[in-house]
Design a protein that fits this description.
By secondary structure, the protein is mostly beta strands. It has no helices and six strands. Strands 3-4-5-6 form a four-stranded antiparallel sheet, with no helix packed on it. Strands 1-2 form a two-stranded antiparallel sheet. The radius of gyration is 15 Å and the shape is globular. The model has no long low-confidence stretch (mean pLDDT 84).
């Protein structure tokens, strides 16, 4: 769930859900856009009920345009696995 709070009117507005479920991530606002980067989906469980933490890493960058209230997905970033 993604919401917008207006402190001037003390009201909340429900916005469109993000394209990717993510937690343990970061976000940055640049101008009228929010960029959600990284993280993982720890709500995912494999058929045995186990959380495959590193298999659910979110590589796509999601962008919310506050002017239009819509989300878009930008190209995924690439991560080199360190062994």
């Amino acid at each position: 769930m993604f919401n917008d709070y207006d402190p001037a009117t003390n009201t909340w507005k429900v916005l469109q859900d993000t394209p990717h479920i993510r937690d343990h991530s970061i976000a940055v606002v640049v101008g009228d856009k929010l960029y959600a980067v990284g993280g993982c989906n720890t709500s995912y469980r494999d058929p045995k009920g186990i959380i495959p933490f590193f298999k659910q890493v979110i590589l796509e960058v999601d962008c919310c345009d506050f002017k239009t209230g819509t989300w878009s997905t930008l190209a995924a970033y690439h991560v080199r696995q360190v062994t």
